[in-house]
Amino acid sequence: QKTAYEICACLVGSEMCIRDRYQRRVRGFAADLSKPKHAEIAAAIKAKDVVLFMKGTPDAPQCGFSAGMVQILKAEDVEFDAHNVLADEELRNEIKDFSDWPTIPQLYVKGEFVGGFDICKQMFIDGDLSKTLKEGE
């Protein structure tokens, strides 16, 4: 059985993209720190070990995927910093460019993008999310 840390390479357009078994992009981060919102996002994910960009708040999620992500993080008994993308339209758009990931919620651990709900759910089921979160402590 493969671990979450085994990687495969694929060609995306003219760019080499490295992805792990959960299809998370390991290399090729799209952040442009010259953009003020990207710099703000980078500061947020460096300020806390576990950061979640979601629709709504942990107490009042505004979509099922965000609610699921909160449930997973609570099940892992981990403290996390949540950012409501619905309260900031620019953040909602720029977080997708920052990570080069098209969906929200997005989870970051120790400044690294982990994935969206589907990836985190599978990692949770496999036990890999717990390992990733412990590395973040």
Overall description:
With 137 residues, the protein is α+β, with helices and mostly antiparallel strands. It has helices at 36-47, 64-75, 89-99, 117-126, 128-136; strands at residues 7-12, 15-20, 50-54, 56-57, 60-61, 81-84, 106-109, 112-115. The strands form three sheets. The protein has a four-stranded mixed β-sheet. The chain has a two-stranded antiparallel sheet with strand order 1-2. The longest helix has 12 residues, at 36-47. Residues 1-19 have low confidence and may be disordered.
Offer a few descriptive terms.
single chain, 137 residues, alpha+beta, two-stranded antiparallel sheet, 5 helices, 8 strands, 24% strand, globular
Q: What low-confidence regions span 5 or more consecutive residues with pLDDT below 50?
A: 1-19
Give the proportion of residues in helices: 25-40%
The helix-strand sequence is EEHEEEHEHEEHH
Number of helices: 5
Number of strands: 8
Topology:
Blueprint: E1 7-12, E2 15-20, H1 36-47, E3 50-54, E4 56-57, E5 60-61, H2 64-75, E6 81-84, H3 89-99, E7 106-109, E8 112-115, H4 117-126, H5 128-136
Parallel strand pairs: 3-6
Antiparallel strand pairs: 1-2, 3-7, 4-5, 7-8
Helix pairs in contact: 2-4
In summary, what is this structure?
This protein has helices at 36-47, 64-75, 89-99, 117-126, 128-136, and strands at 7-12, 15-20, 50-54, 56-57, 60-61, 81-84, 106-109, 112-115. The protein is of the alpha+beta class and 137 residues long.
